[in-house]
Design goal:
Layout lengths: L1 H17 L3 H7 L2 H11 L6 E5 L7 H7 L4 E6 L2 H14 L4 E5 L12 E7 L8 H11 E12 L9 H7 L11 H9 L3 E15 L3 H9 L2 H7 L1 E4 L2 E16 L1
Parallel strand pairs: 1-2, 1-4, 2-3, 4-5
Antiparallel strand pairs: 5-8, 6-8, 7-8
The structure holds S-adenosylmethionine (SAM).
């Protein structure tokens, strides 16, 4: 538990600092990806929708627009950005959207509160995914759905090389899950996999010696798995799969 709290603390320190940064925002914004996610959840009859690890509300704002009759709530550990988001809610005149800060561990909602839970690029930060999934199960209504959109470890990456790169940033990265690991986690905790669409992303790591050190330790085979290259001192992961997976509460 203490380790989990420490992890959230590290993530919070990092995200409180970077979420308002335009350069960071441009790395994680991807309008084609957003359109795919909206397509995946379209047509549902949702009364309440929860976005976990909402950040700047990149997904929550369009969801509130797409489902005007639903109440949308975005939660995150980064308090400052939640306040900014709520100001934006007022400015833009949304009446069905609210942002709340929480402790990163316990979802502060009653049982069967939501018909849809979404989470984009945040699942790999959750310190105790089994506990998170069990809580999602509780707060979802009967037949409710979870959409997890997150980069995935390749099954062939047995040494979990990708996580070694991700941890350099010290932003509370826990681990990426392979498609099989993700499915097992949800199925073992009362969900059924309904659909998975694979998209792709890439990220540059800042010009930092620590990335080069990790890069130098990896084998050619590991680098080929994700097309990891060193371009003039900037290490790039050029090709990582993102699983956009819908699970249904059983
Ligand atoms: C890469 S950002 C993604 C933000 C947003 N979902 C998007 O797609 O733009 C990851 C987010 O996860 C949040 N986060 C980190 N640890 C978390 C935790 N334990 N529970 C919920 N959110 C967390 C961070 O504060 C950050 O906003």
């Amino acid at each position: 538990m203490n380790k989990d709290i420490e992890n959230v603390k590290q993530a919070k320190q990092s995200f409180d600092r970077i979420l308002g940064n335009q350069k960071y925002a441009s790395i994680i914004r991807d309008d084609k990806h957003l359109a795919i996610i909206l397509d995946l959840v379209r047509g549902g009859n949702y009364r309440r929708i929860l976005d976990i690890g909402t950040g700047t509300g990149y997904l929550a704002f369009p969801l509130a627009e797409e489902f005007p009759k639903a109440e949308v709530c975005g939660i995150d550990i980064a308090e400052t950005i939640m306040d900014k988001n709520n100001e934006m809610v007022k400015e833009k005149g949304f009446t069905n959207l609210v942002f709340k800060a929480f402790d990163g561990l316990r979802y502060p909602f009653e049982e069967e509160s939501f018909e849809l839970i979404v989470s984009r690029y945040a699942f790999h930060h959750f310190p105790n995914v089994t506990d998170s999934i069990q809580q999602m199960h509780k707060i979802l209504a009967k037949g409710g759905k979870v959409l997890i959109s997150d980069p995935m470890r390749k099954e062939e990456d047995k040494g979990r090389v990708i996580d070694d790169f991700m941890r350099v940033k010290k932003d509370g990265h826990i681990q990426f899950y392979s498609p099989r690991e993700l499915e097992e986690l949800f199925v073992c905790n009362g969900f059924k996999k309904e659909k998975q669409v694979i998209t792709e992303m890439q990220f540059p790591f800042a010009q930092k010696g620590e990335y080069i050190e990790v890069y130098d330790k990896t084998t050619m085979e590991d680098r080929d798995l994700y097309n990891i290259v060193n371009e003039n001192g900037i290490v790039w992961v050029k090709h990582i799969h993102v699983g956009n997976t819908i699970f249904v509460k059983q």
